[in-house]
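Re-run with default settings, no changes from the original entry. Doing this only to confirm the output is reproducible before filing.
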Amino acid sequence: MLRLPLLSGRKIVAVLAKLGYQEIRQRASHIRLSCPGKKSITVPDYKIISRGLLRKILRDAEISQKEFLNLL
């Protein structure tokens, strides 16, 4: 199993943008992303996102850890 890196919220948003997600709004420290035909995702704008939360974001985006690391 691959080990996910510790990343900032902005870096995760940048990778998800490569998949077609667009930032639709930000409220306080949370960024809301939307992609046509897919579930909307909320990513916290923290300096470091834990690996567990990153796995949850990837599950919501319906992409694998390997695919995410390739886009990184």
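Helices lie at 9-18, 51-61, 65-71. The chain has a mean pLDDT of 94.
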